[in-house]
Amino acid sequence: MIMEFKLPDIGEGVVEGELIQWLVKEGDSVQADQPVVEVMTDKATVEVPAPVSGKISKLTAQDGDMIKVGQVLAQIEEGAGAAKAAPAAEAKTESKVEAKAPASSGSAPAPQTPTPQAANPASSYSGGATLNPSDVPAAPIVRAMAQKSGVDLSQVPASGPKVGDQNRVLEEDLLRFLNQGAGAVQAGAPSYAPQMASPFAAPATAPLKKVKPIPAAFMRDFSGPAVEQVERQPVRGLRRVIANAMTKSKFTAPHYSYVDEFECSQLVALREEAKKLGEQYGVKVSYLPFIVKALVGALKEFPIANSSLEETEKGMELVLKKHIHIGVAVATPDGLVVPVIKHADRKSLLQIAQEINELSAKVRAGKATGEELKGSTFTITSMGNIGGLFATPIINYPEVGIMGVYKIQEKPLVQDGQIVIGKTMHLSLSLDHRVVDGAVGGYFCNAVIERLQNPARLMMEMV
Amino acid sequence: MSKQFEVVVIGAGPGGYVSAIRAAQMGFKTAIIEGHKMGGECLNYGCIPSKALISTGHLIDRVQEGEKYGLMFEKFHVDLGKLIDWKAGIVKSLTGGVSQLLKANGVTVFHGTGQFEGVNGNFKKIKVVTSVDSYDGTKLEAKTDEVIEAERVIIATGSFSAEFPHLKINDTSVLGSKQALDVKKIPKRIVVIGGGVIGLELGSFYTKLGTELEVVEAASELLVGTDRECVDVVQKRLKKNGVQIHLETLVTKIEEKGAGKTIVHTEKKDGTKGTIECDWALLTVGRRPRTANLGLDKIGVKLGDRGFILVNNRLETNVAGVYAIGDVIGGMMLAHKASKEGLVCVESFKNPNTTMDIRALPWAIFVDPEIAGVGHTEESARAAGWDPVIGKCPFAANGRALTTGESAGFVKLIADRKTDRLLGAHLVGAEVSNLVQEVAMAIELGATSEDVARTVHAHPTLPETIMEAAESVHGMAVHFFEKRMR
Fold it and tell me: Domain check: are A141 and A266 in the same one?
């Protein structure tokens, strides 16, 4: 019989959740208690188990849907194609409509540990080993892996040595099966810099001159009882991607930051000219294309900074990238996104300027494609419109470096024993010390600065 | 507030202490409650001490037949006191090791018996009772009772020797397996009541000391459930050694006459009555789950018909967060089964998908000669839907067996006719307890008998018999002649 698999009461007053992903697809055989769908509530992400054994005949909710408790998630053809049931399992006569409450990935003290919640069905194990003709031949490690990932081994195409008309399921068979199944979930472009918008790509807003009224936030009314409150928000979508990517970067690549300041009057003058020329073609030319080009030159001089460190089956490998794709961090209302200027070493300044403008507009409108957000080999983040001296940005892992650029300001400088007014900019580099040592990072920074301080140097190598 | 733990294990036998150590290794705040001695039945009164005695018994056999090998002894006798002391030393060193391991892994040890008191939210309240005597009457160090709380509880309280209303274990005329390990003097004659594993292991040991043995068994065969051909080899040797076996016979009464004289009254199935005079009787009529005084009713843990705790295949009882492993849930009462269940149970705390998934549970019986087995017998394989085919190799065809002077017995492999998949092995002979593991590994890996046959086995060793038996599955054994071809 067909039964409707509904989202069960997950407890703790939760009324709805976001369907993160199905762990099974239509036509799959499932066993009772096998986790089949991952649902995220504002409390936790839980794996909801199938209430009965059978075949998933139809999925009625899709990844990303908001599901209310009691809403139908799927139809299960009870008993059909069910994989081996526990031998001593008691016959289940009642047709349960609600799925069993899942073990939640609870909170403290052990977040990864499900807390026991629901009472269990009566005994199905009475001690000992079993070996039945339906038991797929596979080594203990493969069976343990299959259990952990909730895979029925009879569904896995096997390539191991023959046992009768079956093949043994190898570890690699299972991994292949798991990868195909989980391939649908691709994280969006990870992005890593502090929140900012590029002042070069989009002109900075005019500084505020007028005196503003004091914001309400500063005018708390303490006449009533002081109440401490927190608001809990689910971390979803881009925010979650950012959170995970940042954690991965910070905990994988040991960062150090290197900061310098340089005089940039020549760059300012050059950009003024370029800006006028660009306007003829309707292209706004900011400082960013020049910075991209200076970075490209430095990367060619120091190819090690255009690399990544990978753990492969051969051990640790340094992957030196011969192409130069520059990521440009762009702030959006949902969070930071990094569109990529592909082959920045083979494009003209005007091309790069146009591409930056188009990509950042697309990103802000939330219309950038996955392709446009992938593959950067080094990233630039700019805080020019916000201010500050400099930041220590987080690397866009697995890249090995990120460069922060900041606002240009007039400053007294000592030149030939005279105090003169100069234009200066800070520049900071965060680098992965596993790959780029401190001295190399310093020279690399010098190489960028040389090209920006003296644009003629930049022109000499430009193609 | 009570001390709270993420995992509390009740009972520090081979199931309990293994679970506690693994739980601690996995980062759980863990405690273990033991009302008696660390190591449980296995280390204190089971596997370990009995094997120390049985190995010595075997040595006595070898010494006594020494003339055959040209070893001439002037005079030889057994100092039972020294033997028992040596055995006690082994037990002490192993149980001390368990205590150290628990401590090193950061497991908190409570001495007392654990009793469920109720629940507190997600936590189960357990009273550690130290003011009463533990189950076997040993006085515990007087301390105040304490209630601790556990998010998850693993019941690993094991089992105890079964008794009958008219047959109770005492220290003089009716001994249990525990008492029989610590006798002061070599008995002249003993009666083993119950021809199962424990009775025959200990009974056989006493025959090595010169004791006359009679075995009374209610069933029509010894070692019920064990491969018949294997049991036949052992039974033949028992008879050769003068052991009298009374099958389909019940013990109706035991009379203690004093001065080491005990009369066992028997009645055969056909009504024939008889008496056997002996020093004492050894009562080994099975083991019962130890669930009394646990307070299971306080939290509603369900028991099955025979008093074993009911669990699902990740060892969880009907009460969420309460688990049970080992003898107390039934099945084969084996230390390694309890340990395995404990490991699976703890692993399931991190990953609820983890369930018991073992295809081979090897076992060994230390009778003379040893019997060992794993997986299906011919009958159980057929019942499970396989089409079994047998391969056999006698130890008499094995060079190594002959050079040790012990060539009785054989190796029997069971494979599936259609797929050649290995299904089981049953072995009888010297050292077979050390041979069975190869087949267990092969079964777990899903190997065929041909895989085993094609694997080179070192010469001259006993495992060559496993290779030959695998060849014999295909009618291709080299070192003995078989008429049949497949």
Answer: no
Q: Answer yes or no: are the C-beta atoms of A323 and A377 closer than 8 Å.
A: yes
The closest of B424, B484, B418 to B452, measured between CA atoms, is: B424
Instruction: Provide the pLDDT for residue B323.
Output: 97
Across the interface, do B420 and A86 touch by the CB < 8 Å criterion?
no
User: What is each CA distance from A415 to A263, A265, A419, A420, in whole angstroms?
Assistant: 11, 13, 6, 7
* Record: contact A133-B385, CB cut-off 8 A: yes
Residues A398 and A271 in one domain: yes
Is residue A244 domain-shared with residue A354, that is, in the same domain? yes
Whether residue B358 lies within 8 A of chain A, CB to CB, comes out as yes
Q: What is the pLDDT of residues B390-430, one digit of tens each?
A: 999 999 999 999 999 999 999 999 999 999 999 999 999 99
Q: How far is A88 from chain B (nearest CA, A)?
A: 10
pLDDT single digits (tens) A208-259: 455 666 766 666 655 555 557 788 888 877 888 899 999 999 999 999 999 9
Residue of B313, B341, B446 lying closest to A163 (CB–CB)? B446
Tell me if B357 and A148 make a contact (CB, 8 A cut-off): no
Q: Quick check: A327 and A380 in contact, CB under 8 A? A: yes
Could you tell me the end-to-end alpha-carbon distance of chain A, in angstroms, rounded to an integer? 70
CATH number for region B174-285: 3.50.50.60
- For A89, nearest residue in chain B (alpha carbons): B312
Tens-digit pLDDT profile for residues B421-468: 999 999 999 999 999 999 999 999 999 999 999 999 999 999 999 999
Q: Could you say which DSSP state residue A241 is in?
A: H
Are A357 and A268 in a shared domain? yes
In degrees and rounded to multiples of 5, residue A322 shows phi and psi of: -85, -15
ipTM of the complex: 0.77
Is-catalytic flag, A343?
Answer: no
- The active-site residue out of B36, B111, B246, B459 is B459
Chain B nearest-CA residue for A143 = B357
Last residue of a domain, one of A182, A213, A246: A182
Query: Taking CB atoms and an 8 Å cutoff, what residues of chain B touch A137?
Result: 421, 445-446
The residues spanned by each domain of chain B are 3-46+84-161+288-350, 174-285, 363-473
* CATH class of the structural domain B3-46+84-161+288-350: alpha beta
Where is average pLDDT lowest: A282-296, B126-140, B155-169? B126-140
Helix (H, G, I), strand (E, B) or coil at A75: strand
DSSP one-letter code for B222: S
pLDDT at site A22: 87
Cis peptide upstream of residue A102 (ω within 30 degrees of 0): no
Is the confidence at residue B148, as pLDDT, over 70? Answer: yes
Q: Are A5 and A102 in contact (CB under 8 A)?
A: no
- Looking at every residue in chain B, the average pLDDT score rounds to 93
Q: Which of A148, A167, A182 is the endpoint of a domain?
A: A182
Say yes or no for a CB contact (<8 Å) between B360 and A113: no
Omega of the bond leading into B369 within 30 degrees of 0 (cis): yes
- List CB contacts of B96: < 8 A, sequence separation 6 or more: B38
The CATH number of residue A16's host domain is 2.40.50.100
pTM score: 0.60
Range of the domain at A453: 235-461
The pLDDT of residue A233: 83
Q: Which of B302, B417, B445 to substitute to test the interface with A, most A CBs within 10 Å?
A: B445
Q: Which two tokens stand for residue A77?
A: 């053809």
Give CATH for domain B363-473.
3.30.390.30
Is A115 within a domain? no
Q: Is residue A224 part of a domain?
A: no
CA distance A391 to A377: 20
* Among B378, B421, B443, the residue to mutate for chain A (most A Cβ within 10 A): B421
- Residue A424 is assigned to a structural domain of this protein: yes
Domains B3-46+84-161+288-350 and B174-285 are alike in CATH topology: yes
